[in-house]
Amino acid sequence: MTTLAYLIPVALFLGALGLGGFLWALKSGQYEDLDGAAERVLIDREDKLGR
Amino acid sequence: MSCCAPGAEMALDLVSTTSVLPSSQEIRLASRSLGDDLRQTDLSVPTVHCAACIQAIETALAKLDNVEGARVNLSTKRVAVRWRGDQVPPFVAVLGRLGYEAHLFDPEVGNKDKTLSELIRAVAVSGFAAGNIMLLSVSVWSGAEGATRDLFHWVSALIAIPALAFAGGIFFRSAWNALRHGRMNMDVPIAVGVSLAYAMSLYETINHGDHAYFDASVSLLFFLLIGRTLDHVMRERARTAIKGLSQLAARGAMVLRGDGARDYLPVGEIEPGMQLLVAAGERIPVDGKIIHGATDLDYSLVSGESTPRNVAPGETVQAGVLNLTGSLTIEATAAAKDSFLAEMVRLMEAAEGGRAHYRRIADRVSALYAPVVHLTALATFLGWMAATGDWHRAITIAIAVLIITCPCALGLAVPIVQVVAARRLFENGIMVKDGSAMERLATIDTAVFDKTGTLTLGQPRLVNAASIDPGMLAIAADMAAHSRHPFSKAIAGFAALGRQHKFDAVNEHPGFGIEATDAGSTWRLGRRGWAGWKARTGGEGKHGYGGTVLTKDGFIVATFDFEDALRAGARAAIEQLNDAGVSVEMLSGDTAGACGEVAEMLGVDDFVPCLLPSGKVERVETMTKDGHKVLMVGDGLNDTPALSAAHVSIAPATAADIGRNAADFVFLRESLLAVPLALDVSRKAGNLIRQNIAIAIVYNAVAVPIAILGHVTPLIAAIAMSASSLLVIGNALRLQTSMPNSPAKNVRRDRRSNITKLAQSS
């Protein structure tokens, strides 16, 4: 019972962290162009205009 | 050149070849201000395909003066260019040089899709809640007791609050909206079930009870939201694809002021009496009268007439007509809101009615379902009250009935099938505006086709190329390359590769033809009377277009016959429709002769020629009154009112803008086989929807008696609800695999279609 007292909050916190991460990614526009993101890894970094 | 082979959008070539680059004034008009002198222009670039494309475009655009930056979005195939200054950087020309054809579209009002992000956020929140509550519930089901169970219930209750408030809000609002208007929808039983389940579980938790349904109420929301989000994503994709097509209506026009100044004004600000300059390749912005200039006008999108018409000063022109060869000065006789285009919109609004009365299958089912479920729950409560007198037990069981009948499977049954079907169509280049369109298409028994631009391409094809001296044909083709007249383009397609004939000078005489001089002799390609000024013998050709000849110093050396090229797969499409039990009819604004020829070639029995736009609507309405469910396929401005009068409508991507907006389906590829394919998929989807509803009803028939007898525990509810949802989804996915006649299997003769096919297979 005492283990539950901290295990449940820990589990919930980690879950909430994941949820928060997803919502942040959504808000910062990372899901706007999924196909483009997949292709952009192929563009050479030296070219700053690619960003 | 572009690095990769263009895909399905290749078919859109049809439009682009006839249009000129948007002028810089037009680009400025379509851009939006980001404040601080910074402007953003959104361009749709259908042929971007890979990382190299992205890099080429972004680097080339960023090098231009005044351009702050460019960002390609590969998913939506768009480029957002941010620029500053008064001068519009020549980005469309730059893209053209890279081999990407770009067109403008209007900046979006809200820019971001609010509903979609709300739905995705709701899915995330309810998914988080459902996962955690389910973990706690599993421990309860595995034997957690006493204080531990109470703790788990309390934690579950807390996690469920944000999920209900945020994710459930979507359903509560929709249910409330329906009830307020005296209607029933699927969201009413969902909202009632979820909130009662939560309330009862909370009561149980407070009183240290055994059974709490927090997991049921939250996972229900989660499942339903997934279906709803997929549905929205699908429709959004179709909508963006359609919006990305090039705009065919004029956005503005060059106004000539009395003092010689020129202003570029948006169409809405043009007033009667203003003088407008319309260059070759532009569309006439408003109704007007020609003051000077002679040209050929392409009426195909406006009236359905397939032959370009030669016009001279004094004649009137309608908004939407394409100016082919010479520049014109016209005097506006009506403002945009009174022009032909606006007239069509008015007719369209008047005609809308048939589909407004259509009620979606889901709504029809839920109108029956919700009252039955709620009455059953009430009867259960009364029954247990009468039998035991224990009101707490009676309420618990009644709510269990509500939970178990909560239309989880039913709520997914329809959208999931429609998402799978829409995806299927999307892969074949067909965009569906909404799910109800598919339901309506499945019921049709009559298909009405427009002729010009729908059954035919609205573009002439040279029919007697084989009988023309190849040398003469090559000369004619080289001359024709200098003109944008449809006949010229048909001839230019026969140019001999590599061997370019050198002329000293080439001039286009709008309304007559092309004149070229070469080593002292004069070549003319054009109207018989103008080109063959020394040879007035010989009648017109056997086809209506027979008046086009090539002459050398006034003597006819070759005669060209044209006919309107049929759209690829038109005949096969009509055969397939007939096989599917759909009767086919053709309505056209063109002459009876031209219609008869096409009808005969395609095997269409019924056709009505020379129809005005209102005539088409009347014809569709008459058929509807006779009890037919009519599918209208058309592309022109004159078809638009009929498109909205019909039960369901399909337009090609080359259709006029308002036509594309009015139609339920838009197909992007050239082949007309899209029509029978859409019908086939819709009918299959209709069957699957009925099967899914049957599955959901069978599930209820089994589960409800168990619930009424009071044997339902949270564990049983969770298993039963998940199992029925999975069954329904699995059934919907069968649509992915069972597709015998996809258009890819049909032989295409057209060169362009072959390229498309290559691109798809690579």
Describe this structure in words.
The complex is a heterodimer of chains A (51) and B (762). By secondary structure, chain A is an all-alpha fold. Chain A has helices spanning 2-27, 34-40. Chain A starts with a helix and ends in an 11-residue tail after the last helix. The longest helix of chain A has 26 residues, at 2-27. Chain A has one domain. Chain B is of the alpha+beta class and 762 residues long. Chain B has four domains: 8-111, Alpha-Beta Plaits; 114-241 and 358-419 and 682-737, no CATH class; 252-351, Calcium-transporting ATPase, cytoplasmic transduction domain A (Distorted Sandwich), CATH 2.70.150.10; 464-560, Calcium-transporting ATPase, cytoplasmic domain N, CATH 3.40.1110.10. In chain B, 49% of the residues lie in helices and 17% in strands. Chain B contains 25 helices and 28 strands. In chain B, the strands form six sheets. Chain B has a seven-stranded mixed sheet, with helices on both faces. Chain B has a six-stranded antiparallel sheet with strand order 7-6-8-14-9-12, covered by helices on one side. In chain B, strands 1, 2, 3, 4 and 5 form a five-stranded antiparallel sheet that branches. In chain B, β3 (67-73) and β4 (78-84) form a beta hairpin. Chain B starts with 12 loop residues before the first helix and ends with a helix. Chain A binds chain B through residues 1, 4, 8, 11-12, 15-16, 18-19, 22-23, 26, 31-36, 39-43, 47, 49-50, and chain B through 50-52, 54-55, 58-59, 62, 69, 72-76, 117, 120-121, 124-125, 128, 131-132, 135, 147-148, 151, 155, 159.
List keywords for this structure.
heterodimer, A: 51 residues, mainly alpha, 65% helix, B: 762 residues, alpha+beta, Alpha-Beta Plaits, Calcium-transporting ATPase, cytoplasmic transduction domain A, 4 domains, six-stranded antiparallel β-sheet, elongated, disordered C terminus
